[in-house]
Amino acid sequence: MRQRFGIGACGLTRQQLPVGIVMLLVAMIGSVRAAESPMPSIQPPPKGFDRVDQKIVAGKLTTIEYPSKTVGANRKAQVYLPPGFDANQKYPVLYLLHGIGGTEQEWTRGGVANVILDRLAAEKKMVPMIVVMPNGRAATDVSPRDAIPKQVPAFARFEQDLLNDLIPYIEKTYPVKADRESRALAGLSMGGGQSLNFGLSNLDTFAWVGGFSSAPNTRKFADLVKNPEAAKQKLKLLWVSCGDRDGLMGISRGFHEALEQAKIPHVWHVESGGHDFEVWKRDLYHLAPLLFR
């Protein structure tokens, strides 16, 4: 499997990354070098990383309902609790968003996110975290079967549902660390666009942001990064990735290039593949260990 890996922002050095992330990148790719040097290849996940292994202790996956004042109805989300979950311990939270045709179940049905997270936990490669997979379509009268133009406003409206309804509910219901450095936001396709849009517009809420194969809902760089210095100071990690045969590559590459021009540290990762879960499963496997270090 051919893969390429780059560290953006015109030659991001070890000193510009948190120590924990550097250690993980070293383990994953052998070394971290400045951008002017050839980038080593990231190692693919181990064979079977996305298959259930009965020898691995599984986390707990549940479907919840939370009250949404934004939508005026109860809404659903899936919540993953890590193996060995302890109600007396506080955890960071990853909010993981789906694509245009998905629901709160897409990441576990198509992306087997819980299986991947279980393996990472068993391998002790990630910080124990709670993962929330919501329905990113904030409306009662819009479904995945509707035309895309009808769905787009509901995906944009989810920003308010996420900030004002879902996050407060999670922080009231689960033992989580309720600070920006303990919140991550990532997603695929339409959810990748949401993650960049919402994450970069709300740096006081999220310190870790990731967009996988981000869709055309991604707002212009100038609209999202109005203060590059604030982004440099507040972001713990910004991840931008796409498949090398993805028709939406131009969006992710353009965003990466704008980040480089603004000298904003970020990880730019190109996977081998198209616009599908074979790419996004690997993205999750590579991103999750970098969070909350």
TrEMBL record:
Instruction: Cite a single GO MF annotation.
Output: acyltransferase activity, transferring groups other than amino-acyl groups
Could you tell me what this protein is called?
Uncharacterized protein
Q: Matching Pfam families, A to Z?
A: Esterase
Going by the entry's taxonomy, the superkingdom of the source organism is recorded as: Bacteria
Q: Which organism is it from?
A: Tuwongella immobilis
Q: Could you list the residue ranges forming a coiled coil in this record?
A: none
